[in-house]
Amino acid sequence: DTSSPEIPLFELKLSNISMDDMLSNFMQQSVMYKACQTKIDPRATSQHSVGMVQYAFVNADCLNMSVNDPFYRRCLQHSCHKVFADGSGIRIASLWKGFSPKDNLNGTDMFPRLCEQVAEHNLSIFLLGGAAGIAAKTAENMQHKYPNLTIAGTHHGYFDSVENEQAVIAQINASGASILLVAMGAPKQEVWLEKHQPVLNVAVGIGVGGLFDFYSE
Ligand code: UDP
């Protein structure tokens, strides 16, 4: 059934939407967030967050992990606005259950299209995660490919202290980015976004696994 809006697998409900609809979700959320922020009393902006919306990609590996890891599972169930059906393993599992995913929703295919749309909408993104230099190199490559793209900032994904982590959050908030991509692998990235959701001043937070390793080449 391709028309079902959700695909239930184990205890998760995967969003059965197209790549186009997924991207327009991110854009709408970002545009709405910006509009809300400009209406907020500027004296209150440092304390006030309109609310980051968290999204996750779930491949077969992630699905297996979610069965054994209650923290990750609850994060996907309760803290993520939508979780997306990622990869052929999920496709096969869905077909077994009588559901046909509309698209293979994965970070690798999404990223160039996200960059294109972020540029078109005059938004910006922040790249967090990967080893030192990887997010920065990814930013350089994408900016070269999409000259109108604004990458508001980058940071590696290895924090050696709470103070450093707080500094990174401050950097993200000061960057003005609407969309935060977190590439620390699942479930670390999902749990990180969930934990810091209340203090992150971005519209959209998405866990993207090893995405920057690939795009930094
Ligand atoms: N990573 C990170 N911080 C950590 C642990 C991992 O930034 O504390 C990064 C790592 O450098 C790699 C990515 O997270 O770029 C994990 O990639 P992997 O392919 O394992 O993730 P998956 O796509 O399988 O979720």
Topology of this protein?
Layout: E1 6-9, E2 12-15, H1 19-39, E3 53-58, H2 60-68, H3 70-79, E4 80-85, H4 88-96, H5 107-120, E5 124-129, H6 134-145, E6 150-155, H7 162-175, E7 179-183, H8 188-196, E8 204-207, H9 211-215
Parallel strand pairs: 3-4, 3-8, 5-6, 5-7, 7-8
Antiparallel strand pairs: 1-2
Helix pairs in contact: 2-3
The protein binds uridine-5'-diphosphate.
Describe this protein's structure.
The chain has 217 residues and is α/β, with parallel strands linked by helices. It has a single domain (6-40, 50-215), classed as Rossmann fold (3-Layer(aba) Sandwich). The protein has 9 helices and 8 strands. The strands form 2 sheets. Strands 4-3-8-7-5-6 form a 6-stranded parallel beta sheet, with helices on both faces. The mean pLDDT is 94.
